[in-house]
């Protein structure tokens, strides 16, 4: 296993792009090591590789191409660690008041019918207590076994790590699933909790947006019951949506950008909320609340059979698989600091002080890793 992580360090020291990642509830850490330092772009979404896309869908999606990368993988055994939050990063009163003022401005815009929901965020800069990104990556792997955990680097873009609980979309062949995730409260030993009307409404907004956007392109659309799930030390509301893609409507790029950015990270209506965010947050989200993951990987599916003979191999099915995740619970490393990003959904009934406290709870998750 250490050879795998050593290879990551060598790639990073040679300033060559790479990504290492583990899917939710898996023990396998995969890696792609790009063979040159070129900045490749996913233009059509017919490409094969690992994509990293920013919040602003007007900007380019970066690609680590399969055909120009070496692949590797390792089994990572999780070990339990108890860590406390980084104590060197108290938020100033000025930053607190600034974010509360932004939330009030968002609520006012909702009351003026500019949009029905907006997700407002802030950036916090935390001093690093150590200078080895690989150590942070290992702690993320240990701390969040049910999240999509990644370590992404490109010399022309920067270094990002994260452990996101949210799937944007998964497609295998013409079958796909997508997650509607919204609402947040602290985990206090049980998932049997009561949700306020504000969180329920927020979750319904996300679910309705996704189903409305999907209807022209899919058939056999099904929604699961909404359930409470645990992500680190937080709870969220989740609805799973599944469907079959109509063959004549299978434009993957169109489908992804019909959904991204979703109301869970942007707002509704999307364009009005996005415009408000870009004009009022006063910092560049960059890849926070963007998406990342495998684009058009080939997956071999072996039919079930009791016969273990060589002829069965002829019936293996190869399907294209795309698995994209929303880039939440992430950090950008710059020099001796980590930029962490936290936000929350704002509706007409939001309480600004309570929304501020929610961002503080979320920030503790990443700070505990640092």
Provide the fold topology:
Blueprint: H1 2-13, E1 18-22, E2 28-34, E3 40-41, E4 49-53, E5 62-65, E6 69-75, H2 93-111, E7 117-127, H3 133-143, E8 148-154, E9 158-164, E10 167-172, E11 175-186, H4 197-214, E12 218-223, E13 227-231, E14 234-245, H5 252-259, E15 267-268, H6 270-280, E16 291-301, E17 317-326, E18 330-334, E19 337-346, H7 352-369
Antiparallel strand pairs: 1-2, 1-8, 2-6, 3-5, 4-5, 4-16, 7-15, 7-19, 8-9, 9-18, 10-11, 10-17, 11-14, 12-14, 13-14, 16-17, 18-19
Helix pairs in contact: 2-7
Structural description of this entry:
- The protein is an alpha+beta fold.
- The chain has helices spanning 2-13, 93-111, 133-143, 197-214, 252-259, 270-280, 352-369, and strands at 18-22, 28-34, 40-41, 49-53, 62-65, 69-75, 117-127, 148-154, 158-164, 167-172, 175-186, 218-223, 227-231, 234-245, 267-268, 291-301, 317-326, 330-334, 337-346.
- Strand 8 (148-154) and strand 9 form a beta hairpin.
- The longest helix has 19 residues, at 93-111.
- The protein starts with a helix and ends with a helix.
User: In what range is the share of β-strand residues?
Assistant: 35-45%
The total strand number stands at 19
Quaternary status:
single chain
Overall number of structural domains: 1
**CATH fold call:** Anthranilate synthase
> How would you state the average pLDDT, rounded?
90
User: Pairing-aware structural class of the strands and helices?
Assistant: alpha+beta
CATH class: Alpha Beta
Helix-strand sequence: HEEEEEEHEHEEEEHEEEHEHEEEEH
Counted by DSSP, the helix tally is 7
Cα-atom Rg, whole angstroms? Answer: 21 Å
Separation of the first and last Cα atoms: 23 Å
């Amino acid at each position: 296993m250490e050879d795998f992580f050593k290879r990551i360090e060598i790639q990073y020291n040679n300033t060559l792009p790479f990504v290492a990642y583990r899917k939710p509830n898996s023990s396998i850490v995969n890696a792609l090591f790009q063979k040159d330092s070129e900045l490749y772009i996913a233009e059509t979404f017919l490409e094969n590789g690992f994509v990293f896309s920013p919040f602003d869908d007007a900007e380019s999606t970066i690609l680590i191409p399969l055909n120009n990368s070496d692949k590797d993988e390792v089994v990572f055994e999780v070990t339990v660690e108890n860590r406390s939050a980084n104590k060197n990063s108290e938020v100033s009163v000025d930053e607190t008041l600034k974010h509360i003022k932004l939330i009030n401005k968002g609520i006012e815009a909702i009351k003026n019918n500019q949009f029905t929901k907006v997700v407002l965020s802030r950036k916090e800069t935390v001093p690093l207590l150590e200078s080895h990104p690989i150590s942070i990556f290992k702690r993320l792997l240990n701390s969040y076994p049910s999240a999509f955990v990644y370590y992404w680097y490109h010399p022309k873009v920067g270094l990002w790590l994260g452990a996101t609980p949210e799937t944007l979309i998964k497609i295998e062949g013409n079958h796909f699933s997508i997650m509607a995730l919204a609402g947040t409260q602290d985990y206090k030993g049980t998932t049997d909790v009561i949700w306020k009307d504000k969180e329920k409404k927020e979750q319904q907004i996300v679910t309705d947006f996704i189903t409305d956007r999907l209807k022209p392109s899919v058939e056999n659309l099904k929604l699961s019951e909404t359930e409470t799930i645990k992500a680190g030390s937080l709870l969220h509301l989740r609805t799973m949506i599944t469907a079959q893609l109509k063959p004549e409507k299978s434009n993957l790029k169109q489908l992804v950008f019909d959904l991204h950015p979703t109301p869970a990270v942007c707002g509704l209506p999307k364009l009005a909320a996005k415009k408000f965010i870009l004009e009022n947050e006063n910092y560049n989200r960059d890849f926070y609340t963007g998406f990342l993951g495998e684009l058009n990987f080939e997956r071999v599916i072996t039919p079930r059979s009791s016969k273990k003979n060589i002829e069965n191999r002829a019936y293996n099915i190869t399907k294209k698989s795309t698995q994209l995740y929303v880039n939440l619970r992430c950090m950008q490393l710059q020099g001796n600091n980590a930029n962490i990003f936290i936000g929350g959904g704002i509706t007409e009934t939001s309480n600004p002080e309570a929304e501020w406290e929610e961002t503080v709870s979320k920030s503790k998750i990443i700070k505990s890793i640092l």
